[in-house]
Each structure stands twice: as C-alpha cells, then as structure tokens.
Write a structure and sequence with these properties.
homodimer, about 250 residues, alpha+beta, four-stranded antiparallel beta sheet, 9 helices, globular, DNA-binding
Chain lengths: ~250, ~250
DNA sequence: CGGCCTCTTGAGACAGTTCAACCTATGTGG
DNA sequence: CCACATAGGTTGAACTGTCTCAAGAGGCCG
C-alpha cells in the first residue's frame, strides 16, 4: 500500500512540491490494490462510475467503439497514469478501459478523492495538471490522425511511447518491450491492421524501426524524428525540475 | 462585469449547486472584459501563459499547426467555454487560439484562479468538470477522424455544433448562423476544403443539410442522425438537472 | 495433431487528394 | 460608377494512399 502512495506522490510531485501535511493526507487516501488479467474490462462505456484507478504496473487501453464494432483507441495508459478520472466527473463513462497486459492497479472511491481535493486543494490542482497532460496527448493524437500520413503517424506514435516510457525508467531509448499488437497500433492511428503491417515494413526496410515478437527496436532515432516531425513538447516532461508554487502556499 | 459572473456561474452551475459564500468568491474573481476583432490571436502555441479566458460572445478556434503549415483544429469554442485553461496548467501553450468572429471575452489571471480553487475547492471541482466536458468533445473528434468517413464526419460534427448551440439558446434546432468557412470544417475533420465542398453537396443533394452564406439549415434531422450514428451522450447535457454533491458539502 | 491468433503478402477497388480552372459576392480606389 | 482585387465557393480529371478481400505462414496451446 505504501507502493500506491509512492507512485501517486511521484506522479503529482512532478508538478509541484507538497508539504508534509499535504503528503500525509495524500497517503491517507487508501487505495485498494488489485491485480487483473489481460483483457479484463475495467470501465465500460455507458457505465456510471464511482471509482477511478491509478496504474501501478502494466499497460491498459482506453478506447471507444462505434455501433458497428469499429474501435478507436484514445490512448494507452502506463504506470502512474490515472484511469477513469474523466468518467467519474462526467458521471457516466464516455469510453471503455481494458487491461492490455496483466495489470496491477490501485482503486479509489471518487468520494474519497473529492474529499482529498477539498481538504488539500493544491493536490487537487496537481491532479488537474495530470489530467491536462493526458489531454495534451489526446490532442496530439488528433493532429496525428487529421494531418499526417500513415508513416508519419506511426513514427510519431512510437516516439511518443518511447518518451513516456523513458520518463518512467522503463526500457532505454531504443529497445524496449511493447505489448501492443498491430491491431492496437491500427486502432490508435485510425488505420487498418494490414496497412500498419505495410507501414512497419516500410520503416524496417529503411532501417529505422523493427518490431519483432513484442520487442520494439529503434535503429535510427534521428531519422525517426525527422519522419515524424516530432517534438516532445506536448508531453510536458522537459521542465527541468522547475515547479510551480500553487495558490498562496 | 456582472455579465462575466453570470456566464461563469451559469456554466459551473450546470455541474453543482453552490452556496452563497462560494458564489460570492466566484463573483470576486474579477475578470477583465475585452472585445477583439475576428482573426485576433489570443494564445499562440509555445507561449508561456499567465491568463485564461471565458468566451462571453462569439466563436473562437483552438488549433495546432505542423511545421509545413498544415492546420488541425482541435475544437471551436462557444459562449461559456473556457480558453487556455489547459495551457496555463502546462505552463506553455500546446495549441493556439484565434477569434473566428468578433469576440467578447473575460480574462482572468491564473493566480487568481488558483486562489479561488484553493479557497473554494468545490468550485475547483466544477472547473475540473468543465475541462472534462471539453476533453470528451475532443475525444469524440478523435473517434470521428479515426473511424468515420467524410459524410459521417461532417454529419456528426454538424450535430455536435447544433446540440452545443441549442443548450446555449443560440438558434433553434434546424436553422442557425454558423460563421465557419469550408476550410474550417476541413481542418476540424481532417479533410481537404475541396472534399468538404463535395461532401456538403452530397448532403444537399440528399436534402439533409444546406449551408448557404453563413447559415446552416438542417432539412432532415432524423436522416442526419442516422448518417452520423450520433448520440449526444458525450456532451454531458442530458442529466435532467440532476447535480452532484461535491465533497462534504 | 489441430485450432487459433497474429503477422505477412498480393491484387484490385475506392475514398479522398491534388492541380487547375472558373464563378460569384463583396469591397476598394480612381 | 466602373475596374479591379480578394476571399470563398464550385467543378472536373487525374492521381495516390489506404482499404478490402483473399490466401498463406509461423508460433503457441490444448
């Protein structure tokens, strides 16, 4: 359980430094740790939601489905990411969430979270920030799909994943485990599985990226960035430890 | 200036009921009202932002640009919508905002906003909610672009706009002023201007929608919904006035 | 062994783009 | 009051990126 608060404190601590008092209240937010199998549905679109989660370990997908079964992935969630926060505020989930890998997560009651925010508004603002950071990623996906072609999209998405994982200390820059199938890439990039396959081949033939048996290897980081027109700006990682004094603290 | 607080209170009041005390503090958040000409840039991607806005009247666009000039519109902002909130939290703007029409808006200092949130956390949660509502719209745009064809996209977007305007009491169900050019439709839907033109023709020829000289007319609401596969679910309007008690209030 | 899931490849079809031209309204200066 | 410029909308024809359909290959598990 100490684990939970370490992850949460680390996440929110990226935004601001908190007082002993605030950290104590954060620690008092008892999250119930649970582990789920791959493919377990955590949140289903349309559900009325009373709890949200923080990912401790593993990957999850956040997606929507059209009536005819087409799927659009909104984002993949990694350790430290919050799940279902938006849905709890909107009361009814506007998207589904499913475990991609075996998943370890902590569950919170929304009421407890609201109480924490009301007692320690500066923590509330930090949660706010985390939400904004997620939204920035979604917005970047929007640009990706609206205005980039298949190769640019895939390159950009790979670089986004790489940057996010690196910050978490998972895998090094250019070779890491990635549990996504080609279908997952297709559904996040708005393409077909078949075309993702060809696009990966394109990048492989040009000696830029290979993806083989769950392991993604970046052969030419520089060329990849050039193809994607990538800047890690939107991930809000590069603030060199500068933090913001919130409110009157 | 009373205008400002009426708009803000109305917006946030959709989420929860507030006490006299809270409303007083909300009213104390003095926003500086200003009016800008069409095409004025309010926020530029990359700027460090210290203020955010609420739209009182008019339309604004929120967009990103690729290095080569391609533009992707994230969303159009209508009266009551908050501008730049995400950017202030991320410190540096991840998108630009421009006035589409002549625009009347109120400007707030982030610091004042943070103070309000810290003093009245329940208002903070309501602002939170407003942000989530915006994000839900962006997510819906994502699905739109990733998994729908041109006709479906346009139909869906028109219905989204219609629903948002109706809630604001602007224009009735099926005939209203819309200041967007075909280029704007193209950039929000990830298509070319030319193809938007053809798609409008498609809808016109089937007697579903016409768009002539800034006025959008829905001829067949039912067919439009059918084409789009539309549900207004994601706009979080349909909660029948049910509100949520936040925290320990 | 057989069944299933994911990846891979090819060939043809189609949705959306590109380029190039023209039209119509609105506004401006002489 | 006309000549001209500009901005947005409209249309056609050729092109291309992505999809669809169909088939096969490799790994994993019961």
């Amino acid at each position: 359980v100490g684990e939970v608060n370490r992850v949460l404190a680390r996440k929110l601590g990226q935004y601001a430094d908190f007082s002993e008092d605030e950290l104590a209240d954060l620690a008092a937010l008892e999250g119930e740790v649970q582990e789920v199998e791959p493919d377990t549905e955590l949140i289903a679109e349309g559900d009325t939601i009373a709890r949200c989660y923080i990912v401790l370990e593993g990957w999850a997908v956040c997606y929507k489905r059209l009536p005819d079964g087409r799927r659009q992935v909104i984002n993949f969630m990694l350790p430290g990411d919050l799940l279902g926060l938006r849905s709890t505020l909107l009361r009814v989930a506007d998207h589904s969430v499913k475990a991609t890998t075996r998943l370890q997560l902590a569950r919170f009651l929304v009421d407890d979270l609201h109480r924490l925010i009301c007692d320690q508004p500066r923590i509330g603002v930090a949660i706010f920030w985390a939400l904004c950071r997620d939204e920035a990623i979604v917005v970047e996906h929007l640009v990706n799909m609206g205005r980039r072609n298949a190769v640019e999209r895939l390159a950009h998405f790979i670089l986004e994943l790489t940057a996010r994982l690196r910050v978490l200390g998972l895998g090094n820059q250019d070779d890491y485990a990635c549990p996504l199938r080609q279908e997952d890439f297709a559904d996040v990039l708005g393409l077909t599985t078949i075309h993702i396959n060809r696009t990966f081949r394109h990048l492989r033939e040009r000696q830029v990226v290979t993806m083989y048996r769950g392991s993604l290897r970046i052969l030419d980081h520089h060329k990849l960035i050039e193809i994607a027109g990538f800047s890690d700006h939107f991930l809000d990682h590069g603030n060199d430890g500068r933090k913001i004094p919130i409110g009157n603290a």
